[in-house]
UniProtKB/TrEMBL annotation:
Gene3D superfamilies referenced in this protein's UniProt entry, alphabetically: Collagenase (Catalytic Domain), Glucose-regulated metallo-peptidase M90, N-terminal domain
Species of provenance: Thiohalospira halophila DSM 15071
GO molecular function, one term: aminopeptidase activity
Organism superkingdom: Bacteria
GO cellular component, one term: cytosol
Membrane-spanning segments: none
Protein's recorded name: Zinc-dependent peptidase
Length: 268
C-alpha cells in the first residue's frame, strides 16, 4: 500500500511540476551524456530532474539572474548520477546557488597543535555540509569548453550523495546487495595506486582525488560518467563498484570512438 501511495504521489508531482517539453528538449540537446541514454532512461531522467527542481531551489549568487533554462541545465546534469538512486539521497539540503564564475570560499582548518587557520580558495563548485550546492555557472553550463573532460555538477552532486549517511567520507550508503568490504578494498587499492603513480609522475586520474576520501569518490564519479573508459582501464574494481552503486554502466552506452581528454579543475 505504501509503495502505491508513493507512486501516486510521484505521478501527481510530475503532472504539476514536470519540466516543460521545450526546456527539456533544449537541455537534452545541450547535454551529450543524456543523449547516450535509451529512450526509457531519458524519460526517467526527465522525472528525476523534474523532482530535483521541485525539491531544490536554484538561486543566483553574485548578481547572477537564473533563467528557467539554466535551472533545467543544472537539474539534468545532477539527475544523471541520481537516475537509479532512491530519492532519500537528496534529503537534508534545499538549494543550488549559481555564481557567474568561480567564487571565493573561506575555510577554517585546525592544525595538529589545535591552532585554527582561516584561508581562502577560488572554487568552481562546493557542496556545503547540510547546506546548498554552490556552482560557478561558467563551469556548470553545458557548453563549457571542457565539458567532455569533466563535470562540476556531477562532482558536487556526488558529494551530496556521499553525505547521505551524515558525512561525506567516500563511503555513501550502499545498496543492500553490495559488500562494503569490496567497496573499501577497491577504493583503498586505487588510492594507493594513484599516490604511487603521482609520485612517479604518471597518474591515471586527476590527483585532486588525493585530497581526501570524499574527493576521491567525487572525482571517481566524474570519471565514471564522463571518462568511463579511462576509469575502467585504470581502476576496474572502482568502476565495477560504481556500476553496482549507480545501477548504470556508462561505458556500455558509449560509442567506441568517443575518447575525451583529461581534466583537472578547482572543485570541492
Amino acid at each position: 500500500m505504501l509503495q502505491h501511495l508513493r507512486a501516486w504521489h510521484r505521478r501527481r508531482l510530475l503532472r504539476r511540476h514536470g519540466i516543460e517539453p521545450g526546456l527539456w528538449s533544449a537541455a537534452l540537446d545541450d547535454f551529450p551524456l543524456a543523449g547516450e541514454l535509451a529512450p526509457a532512461e531519458q524519460q526517467q531522467l526527465w522525472e528525476v530532474a523534474s523532482l530535483f527542481l521541485h525539491r531544490k531551489a536554484v538561486e543566483g549568487g553574485g548578481g547572477l539572474e537564473v533563467t528557467p533554462g539554466m535551472a533545467v541545465s543544472v537539474a539534468i546534469q545532477a539527475a544523471l548520477p541520481l537516475l537509479h538512486l532512491d530519492p532519500h539521497y537528496l534529503d537534508g539540503w534545499h538549494a543550488v546557488i549559481l555564481h557567474p564564475g568561480t567564487f571565493v570560499a573561506h575555510h577554517a582548518e585546525v592544525d595538529e597543535a589545535g591552532v585554527e587557520h582561516v584561508g581562502e580558495r577560488e572554487l568552481a563548485g562546493e557542496a556545503w555540509d547540510r547546506g546548498p550546492l554552490v556552482l560557478a555557472w561558467e563551469d556548470a553550463r553545458p557548453d563549457h569548453p571542457r565539458a567532455d573532460e569533466g563535470n562540476v555538477v556531477i562532482h558536487e552532486t556526488a558529494h551530496k550523495i556521499d553525505a547521505a549517511n551524515g558525512v561525506a567520507n567516500g563511503f555513501p550508503p550502499l545498496r543492500p546487495d553490495m559488500d562494503p568490504h569490496r567497496w573499501t578494498a577497491a577504493f583503498e587499492a586505487a588510492w594507493a595506486d594513484l599516490e604511487a603513480a603521482d609520485e612517479a609522475g604518471h597518474p591515471a586520474m586527476d590527483t585532486y582525488a588525493l585530497t581526501d576520501p570524499a574527493e576521491f569518490f567525487a572525482v571517481a564519479c566524474e570519471y565514471f560518467f564522463v571518462l568511463p573508459a579511462e576509469l575502467k582501464a585504470a581502476y576496474p574494481a572502482v568502476y565495477d563498484q560504481l556500476c553496482r552503486f549507480f545501477a548504470q554502466d556508462p561505458l556500455s552506452r558509449r560509442a567506441p570512438e568517443h575518447h575525451p581528454g583529461h581534466r583537472a579543475d578547482q572543485r570541492r
